[in-house]
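Standup notes, protein team

Yesterday: finished cleaning the Sarcophilus harrisii set.
Today: Carboxylesterase type B domain-containing protein structure.
Blockers: none.

Input for Carboxylesterase type B domain-containing protein:
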Amino acid sequence: MDVSTNSWPSVYPQGFSSPLFTGDKADDPIRSTEYGEIRGTHINVKNLDKGVNVFLGIPFARPPIGALRFSPPQPPESWSEVKNATSYPPMCLQDITILEGLRKSLTINFSIPATSEDCLYLNIYVPDHAKEGARLPVMVWIHGGRFRFGSASMYDGSILSAFQNIVVVTIQFRLGILGFFSTGDKHTSGNWGYLDQMAAQRWIQENIAHFGGDPGLVTIFDESIGGINASLHILSPMSKGLLYRTIKERDGTIQPGLISSRSESITRVIAHLSACEKYSSASLVECLRNKTEREIMAISKYFKIIPGVINGQFFPKHPEDLLASIKFHKVVSIINVNSNEYGSIIPLSLGITKFKELSRENILQILLNPFMDIHPDNVDAMMYLYLWNFEDPKELQAQFQEMLGDFEIPALRVAKYQQSPSSPVYFYAFQHGPTTFVSIKPDYVEVDYSDELFSVFGAFLHGPIAQEDKLFSWADIWSSRCWLVKPANSMTPFLPEPIWDPNDHLQLSVGQGMMAEKMKFWMKNLLQKKEAKDILGK
């Protein structure tokens, strides 16, 4: 099958818009796993003159249904015949209206596949020359979506694999209530989504060599709220030995509301909404296991996020405490933010379509909106810091843009915690916006939320493109030998020759010393841990 980079879809709908059809069976690649053989699909990436073998919907765990709902993932069952891995797996159970809204706002027509609890699958993209023992670098993608929506197949790794001669793996994990519900005791301890990610990584360690990948050279990369995933695996003692590098598109490790020390409030609300509130903890879990997928989704709509929990296992302590104690796995990390983070996303989400509508009054209302996740006590301080002497609409617009961009300052704190000689951290701000979707953004928003993904997954090859866009291919920088080549002495901690000094905060195309004047304020005032009462969407 031929895949033309001249007509490659945008990064969001790549998987959905480009179904891979099985061609001549004689050309289809077959690989062994510890559980049985699988058959994939061979594709040709035009203009790169390279081929990629694609394996879709490989189970890395048993379906988490029935008694396995709200339980740790279990190894998949073996199979005897060759299993077809030629079609995309269902997405994990989620509210598809979110993706429908995304499709509408991006003005792109892509299909939305079915959802199912049976969703613990991964996709693998491998250069077609790679055989077992090739020991190519491996990059594992964990999708974003605020732990509410998304899938492995939304991001097609074939161009990245062909362009950089690496193995790309995209994984799925349980979302929402099914992924993170906890009773706070032994009956269901929670963090199922994180355990799914860990199970996928363990499967990769056991099997990726059969596809030509190097299990000792695995880089996890993620984005958005998903940027918390790589960091949490660095912190969790349960993930020891499963990763060696991380690339984090935004780092939400210490973002309020994502990790909670208590689950009682959410448990009570879920018990009430499910009509299971008269039961004990054990009976509540059993009652919820008997609910249909439709009933689970009806409960889920009341929550904007179900946080992970500190349960003494995956999280022995709060992530911020683990960072401060320097008790984490020593790995090399890149952390990225974009210069105009949320410049379009937040106003559109709150119904503001034009920045010229902004005034001090409605900016105040925006900051107080629950969507923003800002503690009310901090709103006045933010208004003073950013808007204290501005009344002109254009100046307010510029300052509001700066405020939205500075929401990523917590990532700087994570970088400072992790930085050490044995675990260097490279922090950069991406300031070059892609040409894709430029028509649906305000002209003053150049690099918005997730825009860097167009350079990562190869969407920079889509259609007519300026030379400057080609220069900003982060697929090239991320997967460069500096990050992916194994050290000659494997007993020595991996210390790459830096692209830039890890103590610098690199701003691509502008300069260094990013956001220094406001970093102290954000760290002091805006990094408050939130309890379950802040999690409810209503």
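Follow-up from PR in the comments: The first helix runs from residue 14 to 17.
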